[in-house]
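Re: beginner question about structure tokens

> Can someone show what the tokenized structure looks like for a real chain? I only ever see the sequence side.

Sure, here's an example I had lying around. Input first:
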Amino acid sequence: MSRPTLKEFKKKALSKKAVNDEYQSLAPAYALRKKLIALRQQAGLTQEQIAEVLHTKKSNISRLENANSVNSPKLSTIEQYANAVGYDIEIKFTPKRN
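And the corresponding structure tokens:
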């Protein structure tokens, strides 16, 4: 018997309401961290370089970008990060899809 692919496993797991609800609740945090990494890379900066700009340690930048981090960044931290890579932030609220 062959092992399921990641795509098949994810589809099966997300068919369970509790798993899907948790997945959806974590989606914004994952999307934010993925965007932060992409913006830093587009700016041509390493974690060390952005840490220097923000007067912090590389480990703090790593933690900020880590999707598995238990800490949620402050809005001011995200603003400073965005500014360091040449962006402003815009917060958008959308109605929930039920």
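Each token stands for a local structural state, so reading them left to right follows the chain. The longest helix spans residues 17-42.
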